[in-house]
Amino acid sequence: MLKTMQWETLNDCEMNSDNFQALLKNEIPSIRISNFASVSECNKLSLAIEKVGFDFYRNVEPPIGRIGITQFEYRNRDKSGYFDAVRKTSETYKQVTSLAFDPLKRLATILCQNVSSKVQIAYENEVYGDYFAGLIRQINIALLHIDFAGLDAPDWKIGNITSQLVWNVYIKAPRQGGICKVYNRQWQPEDEKYKISGSYGYDSSLVVNSEVKHNIPLIGDLLIFNSRNFHEVLPGIGERITISSFIGQMPSGDLVFWS
Ligand SMILES: O=C(O)CCC(=O)C(=O)O
Ligand SMILES: [Fe+2]
Other C-beta atoms within 10 Å of 113: how many? Predict the structure, then answer.
């Protein structure tokens, strides 16, 4: 039976080694780097993103726009489909970020300085090579869900991670709302019975008694939370654009990025 410890605080924590380890162990709800990017950098990125334009996920309701690919979409398909798409998608990511700044690079530098682990893009093998990291999304609503490679990628290298975090940098934020609620409830295999059929979402009865952290999207801030915790994005007024990737900890302690 799952036993959940209360978080040590409900506040955002700053980025440092102790807090990063605490987040991996789900002892704190989040790390926020305020003003990770300037408003002017975010505006430049918004313009570059508009130029490229969003694609929409198949079979995701309410719709989520994105630039980039996700391993999740390929979880029940041919692995090579994902890795075939990595090169082109990485080119688009480079094209967009070269006009403003590269959040993945900036975060990797901060992690290298603060967390004493190797930090790199996740790598599958000699045949497939690197994963993609740096998904750009336009999310209005996201249903209650989790992101955990132990469930979504058992036969991929990332399926070996011992904990999984996700970072999001807010490029455009709604005037109101758009809060990301993170519950202190880590996914367990038994929770699959709460899955809504034909959807990525889970029934909200799962989290009625859970502690919850409300994360407000502020332009230029970067937020990291433990993506094995159930989470959802509430509707807002105004466009909400983020860039994100997962951060997994491998059994060796190394940190790897992927989307
Ligand atoms: O946009 C957000 O605040 C979080 C979206 C999400 O589900 C994730 O990054 O895993
Ligand atoms: Fe998520």
Answer: 11
Question: Where are the chain's structural domains?
Answer: 17-258
pLDDT tens digits along 114-173: 997 799 999 999 999 999 999 999 998 999 999 999 999 999 999 999 999 999 999 999
Architecture of domain 17-258: Sandwich (2.60)
Question: Is residue 5 packed enough to be buried (19+ CB in 10 Å), middle (13-18) or exposed (0-12)?
Answer: exposed
Does 168 sit in the ligand 1 pocket, CB within 6 Å?
A: yes
Check if 169 has its Cβ closer than 6 Å to any atom of ligand 1: no
Per-position b or e across 224-247, b if 16+ CB within 10 A of its CB? bbbbbbbbbbeebeebbbbbbbbb
pTM of the predicted model as reported, rounded to 2 decimal places: 0.97
Atom of ligand 1 at shortest range from CA of 178: 3
CB 209 within 8 A of CB 145: no
Distance CA 31, CA 198 (A): 33
* Continuous H helices in the chain: 17-24, 39-52, 79-98, 103-114, 149-152
231 lines ligand 1 (CB under 6 A): yes
**Angle between helices 79-98 and 39-52 in degrees, nearest 10:** 130
Dihedral sign, CA of 149, 128, 73, 104? Answer: positive
Task: Kindly give the distance from the C-alpha atom of residue 70 to the centroid of ligand 2, in angstroms, as a whole number.
Answer: 12
